[in-house]
Structure formats: C-alpha cells, structure tokens
Amino acid sequence: MTYKRLIISPHCDDAPLTFGGAMLNWKREQTPFGIATVFTRSAYTDVNPEYSRPQEAGGVLDEETYKARIRMVSEIRQNEDRACADYLGAKIIFFNK
C-alpha cells in the first residue's frame, strides 16, 4: 500500500495530539496515511518524576530497575500509539525500539 500522507512524529502521542483533526479527516476521506515515530523509548511519567531517572542522574532507581521501567513505559506508550493508528486505519512505524 502506498500512502498519500506521512507524519513524522518525534515521540509517542505527538502525532495524534498535533494532527488529530487532520488524521480524522483523512480517515473519513479514506486517504491512506502512515505515522513514523522516531524516539519511542522513555522511562518518564509526570507521576513521581524521581522514579523516571537512574540514581546517577538524581533519581532513585538502580540501573536494572531503571531499564525495566524504560521497557514498561515504552511498551505502554507504543501500545497506545498502535491503538490510535488502528482506530484511524493508519500504518505506524517505530524507529527507536
């Protein structure tokens, strides 16, 4: 399938937050489009931000727990992006797995 539109999204959820209205229009018009998310790995949440950094960066997490948190938070965000893309009928690509 070829796409008439391609959104390059810096981070997970940036595309729907920025282009949500346009993407809904493309869905209604049946215009094929894709979303390419560049930076998809993160441990950050705004709840208890000290748990989003390793100890050497001022956080409270040891290295192993920090890496596990990156995997967990990244998976949640990617799943949210996949669900959004599925709803819109878009193809999504994650570059930084």
Q: What does the model show?
A:
By secondary structure, the protein is α/β, with parallel strands linked by helices. Helix content is 43%, strand content 21%. Strands 1-2-3 form a 3-stranded parallel sheet, covered by helices on one side. Helix 1 links the parallel strand 1 and strand 2 (33-39). The relative contact order is 0.23.
What keywords describe this structure?
3 strands, alpha/beta, 97 residues, elongated
Topology readout:
Layout: E1 5-11, H1 14-29, E2 33-39, H2 63-88, E3 91-96
Parallel strand pairs: 1-2, 2-3
Low-confidence residue ranges? none
Number of strands: 3
Order of strands across the main sheet: 1-2-3
> What proportion of the residues form beta strands (DSSP E)?
15-25%
Average pLDDT score = 85
Order of helices and strands: EHEHE
Brief characterization of the structure:
The protein has helices spanning 14-29, 63-88, and strands at 5-11, 33-39, 91-96. With 97 residues, the protein is α/β, with parallel strands linked by helices.
